Amino acid sequence: MKNIFITGGGGYIGTNLTKKLLSKGYNVTVLDTFWFGNHLKKNKKLKILQKDIRNINSKDLKKIDCVMHLASIANDPAAELDAKLTWDVNVLATYKLINMSVAQKVKKFIFASSGSVYGIKKEKKVTENLTLEPISEYNKSKMIGERILLSYKKKIDLTILRPATVCGFSPAMRLDVAINALTFGALKNNIITVFGGKQIRPNLTMYDMISAYIFALKRKYKCNREIDDTIFNLGFENLSILNMAKRVQKSIKNNSELIVKKSNDPRSYRQNSDRILKKGFKPKKKIEDAINEIKLKFKEKKIINDKSFYRINTLKLIKAK
Ligand SMILES: NC(=O)c1ccc[n+]([C@@H]2O[C@H](COP(=O)([O-])OP(=O)(O)OC[C@H]3O[C@@H](n4cnc5c(N)ncnc54)[C@H](O)[C@@H]3O)[C@@H](O)[C@H]2O)c1
């Protein structure tokens, strides 16, 4: 497994993943529209295809050993903005990509699904065996993306990751995700605003997210895995939003004011990730590590209030064109 193809390799997670894979000596091809900028540094082992995944062709996948599929309209409000675009990118392009990957004899395929596919669950242990009840276009498109990929699992070594909300720094930063947004509010305005607060959400640090992709990549090649060896939750700290805010407040130590506002966002769920732990994956970081990393990068002026750090702003501009 030497030649890795990452769709969405210019995004929040993809930028760090690309950097990590290059540092480990892999040849990496990134396919991305770079809607949110290109923060990848030049590297002789890095090939960049600036194009839309909807226009991928088989030649792009020549001699590729593993596809990591991250490109997508990647959160609820952005996905609601243009449902057709969301389904075209998140579902139809996924179908095109897996078809071409199988035809090009790609060995492994790793898919960035989402822990949000479960919808609202009362169960304390939201394991991979529970039914999926997605409530938004984003969640639904991820679920259907998974189902398409599962229909190919006899032909390719498939892993589907269902990550919780990721936190931590990336040069292609996102400030529209929970811990990052709360931390940025505390650093920039000395205010932490919480909407609702009681909703429980699972979290995952950027460090552990990247490690999970490497973990999936390094698993021994195997086609037609059992479902319990294919789909994995990745969420390690299930916290209420209010609790997250309190932990941000404690870590930042700048006497930030905590403001609680009403919310009409009912999404509340936990994730149980015992399945991947049993396979030997070990998360190493806590949300405090991510908060401190953001604090450091903020001091270094690497996190400014860039419009593209809120994905919906850029997508609104694209839609308006
Ligand atoms: N960030 C999280 O908390 C989180 C949690 C669970 C799952 N995920 C999933 O992980 C993946 C990466 O998330 P992220 O936070 O890095 O998102 P992101 O929005 O930062 O990155 C997505 C990247 O995909 C690219 N892209 C989008 N549509 C494209 C298209 N049609 N053709 C080519 N490139 C396209 C964008 O330019 C961007 O660089 C996504 O699939 C997302 O759904 C993210």
Would you kindly provide a written description of the structure presented here, covering whatever features stand out?
By secondary structure, this protein is α/β, with parallel strands linked by helices. It has a single domain (3-172, 203-237, 267-286), classed as NAD(P)-binding Rossmann-like Domain (Rossmann fold, 3-Layer(aba) Sandwich). It is 37% helix and 18% strand. It is built from ten helices and twelve strands. The strands form three sheets. Strands 3-2-1-4-5-6-10 form a seven-stranded parallel sheet, with helices on both faces. A three-stranded mixed sheet has the order 7-9-11. A two-stranded parallel ribbon has the order 8-12. Strand 5, helix 4 and strand 6 (157-163) form a beta-alpha-beta unit. Helix 1 packs across helix 6, helix 5 (178-189) packs across helix 9 (287-299) and helix 7 (241-252) packs across helix 9. The longest helix is centred in the N-terminal third of the chain and has 21 residues, at 83-103. The protein is globular. It starts with a strand and ends with a helix. It binds nicotinamide-adenine-dinucleotide. Nicotinamide-adenine-dinucleotide binds next to helix 1 and strand 7.
CATH homology group: NAD(P)-binding Rossmann-like Domain
Question: What would the average pLDDT be, to the nearest integer?
Answer: 95
Ligand species = nicotinamide-adenine-dinucleotide
Order of strands across the main sheet:
3-2-1-4-5-6-10
β-strand amount? 15-25%
